[in-house]
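Researcher: Structure prediction, please.
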Amino acid sequence: MTKFTLDIGLIDKITRKQEMSLLEARNIVEKIVSSYNHPYHITKKKKVTTKKDGSNFEEDLLGLEYIGIKKETLLEILESIKASLNLEGIWLYESTGEENWEDC
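Model: Predicted structure follows.
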């Protein structure tokens, strides 16, 4: 079964700053994803990014995990989240879980 993970960065694509709190973003994201009636798991994450000048900054992320959802449906959810939050970046990861069992 395929597991999809969305890492939702909270940096605004225009101001390049975090304009809303994790709680505000979570409320908006949960409203969107709950309308699709598919089970999900949401978490708080951190990401360290290196700027062009070499300095690092820590960014808040929301992690959204789905198992067994159609990729097309997930892409619809992704686009809805992106449009609602005016975000710079959402990262999508796909895993079948098979790579974790090869050496066992």
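Model: The mean pLDDT is 87.
Researcher: Thanks, that helps.
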